[in-house]
Design goal:
Radius of gyration: 15 Å
Number of domains: 1
Strand content: under 5%
Low-confidence stretches: none
Number of strands: 0
Helix content: over 70%
Number of helices: 3
Largest sheet: none
Length: 86
Amino acid sequence: MFEVVPIVAGVGAALVVAQQIAPRWRMVTLVALSLLIGFTASAVSGELALSWGFVPVDVAEVLLAAGLTTIVLNTHRTRARAVRRT
C-alpha cells in the first residue's frame, strides 16, 4: 500500500516541475525533489524504523515515476505542436 505514495508523488512532482520551473533547471529540480520525496515517503511509511535500505528504493520509485511522466509530457507536447503545424 505504501509503495503508491512515492509513485503518485513522483508523478505530481513531474507535473509541477513541468509547469513551474524553467527548462534548464527542470532536471536538477526533479532529481532534488525525488531525493526529498523518497526520503519523506520512507519516513512517513515507517520504513526508516526498519532499515535505511528502503530509502534508495523509494527514491528510485519517485525518480522512475517522475522520469516516465516527463517523457510522456514531452512526447505529448511534441505531437501537439506537430499537429498544430499541419
